[in-house]
Amino acid sequence: MSQNKTLVLAEKPSVGKDIARVLKCKNGQNGYLENDRYIVTWALGHLVSLADPEAYGEKYQNWNMESLPMLPEHMKLTVLKGSGKQYKIVSSLLGRSEVKDIVIATDAGREGELVARWILDKAHCHKPIRRLWISSVTDKAISEGFKNLKPGTEFNNLYRAAQCRAEGDWLVGLNITRALTVKYNAQLSAGRVQSATLNMIVEREEAIKNFKPKPYYNILAKTPQFTLTWQGQHGKNINSKETAEKILQKMKGKSAVIKDISKKPKKSTSPGLYDLTELQRDANRLFGMSPKETLNIMQRLYESHKILTYPRTDSKYLTQDIVPTLSERLKTISIGPYKAAVSEILKLGIHTNKSFVDDRKVSDHHAIIPTEQRVILANLSTDERKIYDLVIKRFLSVFLPPYEYLQTTVTADIAGEALTAKGREIITLGYKKVYENQSEEDDDEDNEDQQLPSLKKGNALAVSQISLKELETKPPARFTEATLLSAMENPQKVVKVDAKAAKTLGETGGIGTVATRADIIEKLYKMFVIEKKGNSLYPTSKGKQLIDLVPADLKSPLMTAKWERQLELISKGKSDPEAFIADIKTYTTELVNDVKNSNEKFVHDNKSGQKCPECGKNLLEVKGKYGMMLVCQDRTCGYRENVSKNTNVRCPECHVKLEIRGKGDGALYFCKRCGFREKVSSFNKKHFDGNRKNSKREAQNYMRKMKKENQEAVNNPFAEALAKLKESE
């Protein structure tokens, strides 16, 4: 008689193999490992997703307005394309008679729950479930997790919330996308998060376009050792040039007399631990990494290197049960550049407080911190090292004392007018020791601080120059990927909403989630509705027109915030999932009717003058994230070709980054600024031949990395349905 076994279902092969090693499953088979007690298998991200509209009948085979809205009574599941082989293996294992129960070991979160439950549903598996809920995949965390498995029933509501989110996005996203695409015969995509995000970019561009700068003035008085700034009752800015010139003339030729010197001790504490969004912001600001790049790097540091905890977290806090592990985590990172700080912390003693340890501020996962696994820095790529360094410095900083300094303010008088200068004297660097030699934004830094000499009240100072500084009010800055993440997290700070709506947005964590925001930004690039110039994001003509065509309610961040609030209530068992889906169906019908009844127009204003070689229609010239493309304007054709590709290679004449134009042997490096051009083959031979071995190795490493990241058919449960929308125009 065969022995009863437990089947463990992980989200990815790498994690499955780590779990199998800890559980001593050494009998390796195709798609799983086992021993006499456990069978460990894995998904490939999502193996199962919601079926395409075509699965619900012939009337949805062709895109037409008459078949909308699509409102299936029961949503069907399907095996994702390319995942059939592994699904069959998992399904077969689930059906084995000796398998008596299941341990869900997918990522500990809403999407991870969905990955596993959809597989079980599709396989009609109703065996008892337990849940592995861990925040790192070290051997120790896995071992401890298996000693503390939770009943699967505890996560039923989390699954229902995930299911509602996926079905809601299917209903709204696919219906509104089909309606817009059919109505305007253009490849137009919309959705609750992407439309609200695009709308913020478009509104910011309109605000910049309509901004009218106003002049204002500052008066500066230069002494031999420092500079004083005029101060009025309402600050240093003077709106009238005439008033400013009168004050300037009054002070000319006069000396300055020191009236007051005040010294105030000030301190600033560590900025706290990282959640994913803030880490993505800093990586973009400091290193120019896109949010998607940062998430991919974090995933490798968590999953492959096992040196950082779970990345998809929205918390900057730890729970009390983590506190006993802090000493071991600190000792693990006591290497190289971090050794001195760790020694100081251990010498002072590990002290925690509510600024970073608070159970109430942690939902699914705590902040990103190092694991107890020893790190070998030499094994990390340059980019992995940068992200790891950010996380470790934040982790060290919370244990170190505050940064303390004396803020000196000198007040002087020139002809009866008050002027000030500020200086700073550092008392102790505190947590800033870990940031020495690194650029760091700090909200309480005053960029007017200067080195002040030793002064006494009543000192008279010669004034060598008094000048009028003419300035202009500035329009709001365009979004970068970093500031867009902030806007998605706190849309109430950039979108005009009433106090009640602002409260809702603040409480629900904005639009999107830490796990999806990077993908949303990438999707906006792929839809060609935004483009990047330098670090700034601009809406394209297509993006501006799309926002005019999308129903108003779908563009509001408030709608998706209310949605997220409902999902949160469902996950806690405090709201009815069936009522949620019924409301979404009603809402979907209203959105489709809005599009049907619209009198708006869509105009292709980027026609290239070239004809599509497949259908003869005009090709459109579009700017992708990585270069220029020509794509067919007919959504059913889908023809596309690359025109140019951005590179990191610098022009030898003017040092601007070059483009590659053309294909194969005819490919040229081209400079948009000075017109430099040279064949790629001859340029590379001339400039890179001496380092060919290193270049080849770097290229191979890069291709392996890209291949690994491209295998992330991971967290997009209905990617196939949306993939039918060829990414054009």
UniProtKB/TrEMBL annotation:
It is an enzyme of class 5 (isomerase). Its cofactor is Mg(2+). It catalyses: ATP-independent breakage of single-stranded DNA, followed by passage and rejoining. One of its GO terms (cellular component) is cytoplasmic replication fork. Its EC number is 5.6.2.1. Mg(2+) binds at E11, D107. One of its GO terms (biological process) is DNA repair. Residues 5-138 form the Toprim domain. The record marks W63, W170, R178, R312 as: Interaction with DNA. It holds the Pfam family Toprim. GO terms for molecular function: DNA binding; DNA topoisomerase type I (single strand cut, ATP-independent) activity; magnesium ion binding. The active site is at Y310. Keywords: DNA-binding, Isomerase, Magnesium, Metal-binding, Topoisomerase. PROSITE patterns: TOPO_IA_1 (PS00396), TOPO_IA_2 (PS52039), TOPRIM (PS50880). Residues 189-194 are annotated as: Interaction with DNA. Residues 155-592 form the Topo IA-type catalytic domain. Releases the supercoiling and torsional tension of DNA, which is introduced during the DNA replication and transcription, by transiently cleaving and rejoining one strand of the DNA duplex. Introduces a single-strand break via transesterification at a target site in duplex DNA. The scissile phosphodiester is attacked by the catalytic tyrosine of the enzyme, resulting in the formation of a DNA-(5'-phosphotyrosyl)-enzyme intermediate and the expulsion of a 3'-OH DNA strand. The free DNA strand then undergoes passage around the unbroken strand, thus removing DNA supercoils. PANTHER family: DNA TOPOISOMERASE 3-ALPHA, PROKARYOTIC DNA TOPOISOMERASE. Belongs to the type IA topoisomerase family. This is DNA topoisomerase 3. It comes from Eubacterium callanderi. The lineage of its organism: Bacteria, Bacillati, Bacillota, Clostridia, Eubacteriales.
